[in-house]
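Archive entry. Fields below.
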Amino acid sequence: MLQTCGENWGIKGVIMAIRNILSKSSDWLRGEGPHHQIVVSSRVRLARNLSGAPFPGWAKKAERTQILERIRPRVEELPEMADAFSFACQDLSALEKQVLVERHLISREHAAKGPGSAVVMNKRQTLSIMINEEDHLRMQAIRSGLQLRAAFKALNKVDSELEQKVDFAFDPVLGYLTACPSNVGTGMRASAMLHVPALVLSEQINQVIQAVNKIGLAVRGLYGEGTEALGNLFQISNQITLGEREEEIIERLQKVILQIIDHEQNARQTLLQQRSNTLLDSIGRSYGTLRHAYSMGSKEALNLLSLAKLGCDLGFYSEEQQHAVDELFMETQPAHLQKGSPKKLATEERDTLRADIIRRKLAEFQPPDVAGVMARVQVVPQKTGEETAPAEGTEPSGESSEGAL
Amino acid sequence: MLCDVCKTETASVFLTQIVDGKMQKVNMCEGCSKAKGVADPTGFALADLLLGMGAAQQLERTTPEGKRCPQCGFTQSEFKKTGRLGCSVCYGTFSEGLEPMLKGMHKGLKHTGKCPERLQRTQARDNALRELHADLRHAVVSERYEDAASLRDKIKALEFEA
Ligand SMILES: [Zn+2]
Ligand SMILES: [Zn+2]
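PREDICTED_STRUCTURE:
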């Protein structure tokens, strides 16, 4: 049953529905899907506008409301939205919107919207449609792992269903017309969230970013830029939307992502073989801190969880433990922490709660199986000229490697 | 933190602009900030930053001053402020200035991807009608009147559908 919140539901309905969605974790966070060790999630977004109506940023309040009223029922009646939640932006609290932002279900910009905007999302949280964001419709499909094609296929179907009922602004030459000229054409942005700790640790990430930028794709840190990116999480996406077919854009992106995966895998092997001490030290320290800290900021948590995730991938921890780590990435975000608490938390209280949640969740976490992993690794001594000790020149200084982690 | 413009250099100039009541933060490296004349932040357009250098000026140069979109009343000075257009008709209204901008940021100027089914049907019908009309002319010229009659019926049927 569709859960529509707003006028007819009353505020009680909204609270129930949003609680319902917030208590369930997103399907795309499951840590499944192809290449899930390095590709956390794949996302495809389509921007669409009603023909003839002013774009949301230029429309007057009354026009925006009219547009919303025209679109919202059409979106809610989509078969994909049979079990959907539909919220008017003004009915959600700032905290609830922030939780949706942290789950990538709405944009930061959309969270700032008041009357005249809404979001409709399915129960599994794999499809979400923002109404009156920058464009009249911003639809996105999100999947775990590298599943850009599947995400596009699902979203394309939704788009085709909607266009039977609403007249989209489309020009035979320029394609789908969008508020920002940078989205015109396909209106499509395809992206993947990548976890590449070894590329960061071996200081290759900036080279990768520059190379990828040169071919018309964008890479940015999910939380912060470049080597300062927290949690070693990066988002890669297409920038060109005009002059390339949707499938071409996705194939190109897919190809580049596969290359980055190879780079990351190679960098991981190199770390194991040539800088195992640095790696073991980082993994061991992250284990100790995650299991025993009583106060932890979100930056530290992201970086330590990233190392725990790397540890899972490399076989230091058993497979069941991976799921707990994946979930903690989301559960330790500020709004997710706050939502479990009846009163507003101060920063220190949040840091304490964050550490508590991590300790509790990782209570059964066994220490890294160093002997088991290292037995499988062929340690290659670093090429250091005459010396057998690791060369200072090739090894990043303690300072910079700490920064990268 | 990397420069928002070139995405290569480290940012050293940090700007905050308020656009439509929304705060927009922009980080730039030394070179990019100079190139954009950000030393004087008042003369600096958000559109340029979001869409590439000279985007706002381009629209300004090619658009007669005070030109408004007949559909939504949007002007190029609004574009300079936000880097966003007013409505789908704006693309036609400001096409001269938009074209070089689009060329700079995309791959060509022709959409080659998905087309709404409704439009596909119209296009297919237009093509079919064009062919039928050509066949009809041939039929009349070569005095195949029975063929011509049946072609006229087909044309009528197709036009009726529309
Ligand atoms: Zn720069
Ligand atoms: Zn307009």
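CURATOR_NOTE: The interface with chain A takes residues 1-2, 7-8, 10, 20, 22, 50-51, 71-72, 74, 78, 82-89, 91, 98, 101-102, 105-119, 123 of chain B (CB under 8 Å).
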